[in-house]
Design a protein that fits this description.
The chain is mainly alpha-helical. The chain has eight helices and no strands. The N and C termini lie far apart (about 75 Å).
Length: about 190
């Protein structure tokens, strides 16, 4: 079955859409001009005339196949603007498909962004490591040794460390927590000053 309207279907559809008007051809042209204005403000396409014609063709096809009730210029425009909305969406999708980034260019941009992000993370980690070393050197030797044992030699066996130090496990955890808080403050201050 063809998408073209036969002359009989065209006249029936035209009458359904513009039969309310005293001058149906003038009502047709007036609606078409309103659609051109619609596409002027809502479309990225420069061929607004052909988009308006596409909407008018669809309106006639719809009216030729279905019951359509149009009583005045306002209801005709409401009906046409709904169809125009979908025609505009179709046009945008078509335009987007025609203009795309070349795959190799978009991949290069992603690779470059990933590299820059990884480099920034590496530099940040280096700065933090340098700050941590400098701040650890400022701690008292017994505090440095406690942190070293807690996170190194006795990692996972901190109850044994507490026994060797002659303190409760809870006391050990509190001391380490306070040292960590102090060390974090020292590192943050070091980074802010450098």
């Amino acid at each position: 079955m063809s998408n073209e309207l036969t002359e009989e279907v065209f006249h029936r559809a035209f009458t359904k859409l513009f039969g309310y008007a005293d001058d149906p051809p003038a009502a047709y042209e007036q609606l078409r001009q309103k659609l051109v204005q619609y596409f002027r403000s809502n479309s990225h396409s420069y061929d607004r005339e052909s988009l308006a014609d596409k909407v008018m063709d669809r309106l006639l096809k719809i009216a030729g196949k279905r019951y359509v009730r149009v009583e005045d210029d306002e209801s005709a425009y409401r009906f046409a603007s709904r169809v125009a909305y979908f025609v505009n969406l179709e046009q945008r999708r078509q335009d987007d498909k025609q203009w795309e980034f070349p795959e190799d260019l978009s991949l290069d941009l992603v690779k470059q962004d990933d590299f820059l992000e990884a480099e920034a993370r590496r530099q940040t980690a280096e700065r933090r490591a340098t700050a941590l070393e400098a701040c650890l050197a400022q701690l008292k030797p017994k505090d440095r040794e406690l942190l070293s044992d807690y996170y190194g030699k006795y990692h996972g066996h901190t109850k044994r460390l507490a026994l060797e130090l002659g303190i409760t496990h809870e006391t050990l955890r509190i001391r380490v927590f306070r040292l960590k808080v102090r060390l974090k403050e020292m590192v943050d201050q070091y980074l802010n000053n450098s």
